[in-house]
């Protein structure tokens, strides 16, 4: 009988109960030779090299429990790391997750988080191969993704050269529009606005376009996490080139356009400076024949920085300490 | 001129300034084919498999800034993950670090942390190949270590069989003694007590003994992070065996003995239940000839659980939620 408190919490389960509950929900992908439960997992790396990327997500900074469900947080946390691996031209093989959670966290939230991780990994045939759990007053997620390069050289940020073209795959500005709607407390009553909010809660990176771009001869690539201008600035700097973007070339998604009208904002601001959609941006040789999933949005010339409308746009992305 | 505030903080540097400062202090090991600065690092995995382990360390829970320097925290955080990889019989190749830090963190602390990570990795020929930095009110470290199995099968927790022997390499009880001294506010005025406190701040895992044990035919192995009894309980459970320890077989280190006398504690309690020294515990075939670095402390018989003095000792280790 439940009189005083009906919510089962992580503290009720204890550390090993929580671990068992999590691992019981995690089927393992083909690359996982030894999954959760030992000192380390063992993952296939047939290429003889492994791509590895890690991110830390902090409650209140990267997500809010009142804005995003546990399931959404799991999908987003997995997505941003899987996208980093894809942006090297690699195919993700697994993630491992360090999980800091409060003892009073409802077990249902933990279950949903686990299922979010599981489902986002499944999109690319990967899985959660291991992790660590500890108590923390905030929900903190340390997510590391591994990937296999399939015999291809990694596509870094440093290979762009004058004369090449810049293209993007995936959505731009959706997550920023959704975040702005939530922060403004705007009514989100239409399905088109709901799509923007959903994009903030759960990005849809075009994972398969990463290895595909590598096969198409991409000379530089990254995932757009801090905003296209800032992220392409990294490519310009690492490659020693200038990138000139054509603002007319960007398709403005309907959710971005409608949210911008609602909030009186220039939608291009979200497209160019909004992060967290985890689109891929890549540079290709000029004569490349790109599939429809890639949209040419600019070109590489001599010089430095990133130009839009012929002028350099400031550092508009996200700095975690300013 | 510095009038109001002379401490340079992470907030003064900004995110990219902090990243540059960190990566400038990180030479890269032989396995690193692409280091920090891109979406992902690329690490050699000549074995065609990669061992991967992750841990989350939270300020106030796993370390205190008033008890441990940034350098000590870096060494400890690296050590506990490198030890996990070694406990599979693998040779660590790199770590990646997700770093959550407050804007008012002094840059000197960040520098020391970085140097601690660097130096602990250097002990095994590894390096910090990548990471992520974000703002957080607490210092939070998400550390992931990778390792190469060198063609050997991973040594899991599940291979122990009746008739085999249990052995340990490395120190036991030192870190627990040091922690107890600090928590009691006891005077630490002798070099022998200082050694215990130093062991709490900075473990010295016997990394090379991991691959060595694998080569000697270890059938099960783990690193002692939550206390020997609890950790061997995992081996007993995973292998479906009983482990019987001989309490007389454990050498009690002088710092453990002296600290125990100082605080009126049975030193064997720290040896058997204290975690964080990251010793290695392994099971070997009965006829193995072990080098002096491994001490036989028990045997595997039929049954379940872990016995000391012929009786089962309760769950004496550390549960993060209880």
UniProtKB/TrEMBL annotation, chains A, B:
Give the protein name, as stated in the record: Thiamine-monophosphate kinase
Q: What is its EC number?
A: 2.7.4.16
Binding of Mg(2+) 5, residues = 226
Which InterPro entries does the record associate with it?
Answer: PurM-like_C_dom, PurM-like_C_sf, PurM-like_N, PurM-like_N_sf, ThiL-like
Organism ancestry:
Bacteria, Bacillati, Actinomycetota, Actinomycetes, Streptosporangiales
Q: What else is known?
A: Reaction mechanism of ThiL seems to utilize a direct, inline transfer of the gamma-phosphate of ATP to TMP rather than a phosphorylated enzyme intermediate.
Q: From the UniProt record, give the pathway where this protein acts.
A: Cofactor biosynthesis; thiamine diphosphate biosynthesis; thiamine diphosphate from thiamine phosphate: step 1/1
Q: Where is the PurM-like N-terminal domain?
A: 37-147
Q: Where is the PurM-like C-terminal domain?
A: 162-305
Gene expressing this chain:
thiL
Q: Which GO terms describe its molecular function?
A: ATP binding; magnesium ion binding; thiamine-phosphate kinase activity
Residues that hold substrate according to the record? 62, 276, 318
Matching PANTHER family, A to Z? THIAMINE-MONOPHOSPHATE KINASE
Residues the entry annotates as binding Mg(2+) 4: 39, 53, 84
Q: Where does Mg(2+) 2 bind?
A: 55, 84
Q: Which Pfam families does this chain map to?
A: AIRS, AIRS_C
Q: Tell me, what is an example of a GO biological process annotation in this record? A: thiamine biosynthetic process
């Amino acid at each position: 009988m439940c009189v005083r408190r009906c919510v089962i919490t992580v503290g009720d389960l204890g550390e090993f109960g929580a671990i068992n509950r999590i691992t019981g929900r995690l089927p393992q992908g083909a690359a996982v030779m030894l999954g959760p439960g030992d000192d380390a997992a063992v993952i296939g790396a047939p290429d003889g090299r492994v791509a590895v990327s890690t991110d830390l997500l902090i409650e209140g900074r990267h997500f809010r429990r009142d804005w995003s469900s546990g399931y959404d947080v799991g999908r987003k946390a997995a997505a941003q790391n899987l996208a980093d691996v894809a942006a090297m031209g690699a195919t993700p093989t697994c993630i491992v997750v360090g999980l800091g959670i409060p003892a009073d966290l409802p077990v249902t939230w933990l279950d949903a988080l686990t299922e979010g991780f599981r489902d986002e990994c499944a999109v690319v045939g990967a899985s959660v191969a291991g992790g660590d759990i500890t108590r923390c007053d905030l929900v903190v997620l340390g997510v590391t993704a591994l990937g296999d390069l399939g015999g291809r050289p990694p596509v870094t940020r440093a290979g762009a050269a004058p004369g090449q073209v810049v293209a993007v795959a995936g959505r731009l500005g959706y997550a920023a529009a959704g975040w702005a709607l939530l922060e403004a407390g705007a009514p989100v009553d239409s399905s088109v606005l709901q799509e923007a909010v959903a994009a903030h809660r759960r990005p849809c990176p075009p994972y398969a376009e990463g290895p595909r771009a590598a096969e198409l001869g991409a000379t530089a690539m990254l995932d757009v996490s801090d905003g296209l201008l800032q992220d392409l600035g990294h490519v310009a700097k690492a490659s020693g080139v200038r990138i000139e973007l054509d603002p007319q070339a960007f398709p403005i998604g309907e959710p971005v356009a409608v949210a911008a009208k609602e909030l009186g904002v220039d939608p291009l601001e979200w497209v160019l400076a909004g992060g967290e959609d985890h689109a891929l941006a890549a540079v290709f040789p000029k004569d490349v024949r790109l599939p429809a999933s890639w949209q040419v949005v600019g070109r590489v010339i001599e010089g430095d920085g990133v130009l839009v409308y012929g002028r350099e746009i400031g550092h508009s992305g996200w700095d975690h300490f300013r």
